[in-house]
């Protein structure tokens, strides 16, 4: 896909997965391969680079051949700290890129036109852009100007942790994405795997949708 911008993908893999029994839920298998692999496949054609934001031992992600960037803010500060770390990495290592697109790593059916639609909206209304679907707003799925890194860092230092609260305060523009049809079912494109029953449902969807 030809894009007007070199956008860097930031995979937010720092969740604690308490409802999945702990560990990295994105490494759980879906259709015989890690959930994270499904997301990488869908995002790769849309971006110029992909990095993983995660803390702790990086070797657990070695199979994907992607750089792992930890939080630069001390303590487990959540996805907002991951977004900050990703934007800081872009600023230092990809100075020609003005944006990073963040994706939660429990959303295996994310739209194939995610970045294209974000950029189209951003061109009309220059702003932070986040995803919306029938299920509501998905603030961790967004197109973030690298210039916001300093503002995010200041907010983290002041105790801000909720991505949704931050995007709301900063007037994020929402882009609505329609459901996707899989196996005769209408599925939210940001269907996320939080619980074992979500994984079981996703497994059924992948099996039905398999060629």
Folded structure, characterized:
By secondary structure, the protein is of the alpha/beta class. It has one domain (8-209): Alpha-Beta Complex (Spore Coat Polysaccharide Biosynthesis Protein SpsA, Chain A), CATH 3.90.550. Helices cover 31% and strands 23% of the residues. The protein has a 7-stranded mixed sheet with strand order 5-4-1-6-8-7-9, with helices on both faces. The longest helix is centred in the middle third of the chain and has 15 residues, at 79-93. The protein is globular.
Short key terms for the protein model shown above:
single chain, 211 residues, Spore Coat Polysaccharide Biosynthesis Protein SpsA, Chain A, 7-stranded mixed β-sheet, two-stranded antiparallel ribbon, 11 strands
Distance between the termini: 23 Å
Helix content bin: 25-40%
Biggest sheet architecture: 7 strands, mixed
Strand tally: 11
State the strand order across the main sheet.
Answer: 5-4-1-6-8-7-9
Q: Which residue ranges are poorly predicted, with pLDDT under 50 across at least 5 consecutive positions?
A: 17-21
Global outline: globular
Nearest-integer average pLDDT: 90
Note the beta-strand portion.
15-25%
Radius of gyration using CA atoms only: 16 Å
CATH topology: Spore Coat Polysaccharide Biosynthesis Protein SpsA, Chain A
Structural class: alpha/beta
- How many helix segments? 6
CATH architecture group name: Alpha-Beta Complex
Number of domains: 1
Q: Summarize this, please?
A:
With 211 residues, the protein is α/β, with parallel strands linked by helices. It contains six helices and eleven strands.
């Amino acid at each position: 896909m030809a894009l007007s911008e070199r956008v860097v993908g930031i995979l937010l893999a720092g969740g604690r997965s308490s409802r999945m029994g702990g560990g990295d839920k994105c490494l759980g298998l879906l259709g015989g391969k890690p959930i994270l692999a499904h997301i990488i496949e869908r995002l790769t054609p849309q971006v110029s680079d992909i990095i993983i934001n995660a803390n702790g031992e990086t070797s657990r992600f070695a199979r994907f051949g992607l750089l792992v960037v930890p939080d630069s803010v001390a303590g487990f500060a959540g996805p907002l700290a991951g977004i900050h770390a990703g934007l800081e990495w872009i600023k230092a290592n990809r100075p020609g890129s003005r944006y990073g697109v963040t994706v939660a790593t429990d959303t295996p059916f994310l739209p194939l036109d995610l970045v294209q639609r974000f950029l189209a909206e951003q061109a009309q209304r220059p702003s932070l852009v986040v995803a919306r679907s029938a299920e509501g707003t998905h603030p961790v799925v967004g197109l973030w100007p690298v210039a916001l890194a300093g503002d995010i860092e200041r907010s983290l230092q002041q105790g801000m942790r909720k991505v949704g609260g931050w995007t709301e305060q900063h007037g994020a523009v929402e882009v609505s994405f329609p459901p996707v049809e899989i196996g005769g079912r209408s599925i939210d494109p940001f269907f996320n795997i939080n619980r074992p029953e979500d994984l079981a449902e996703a497994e059924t969807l992948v099996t039905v949708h398999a060629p």
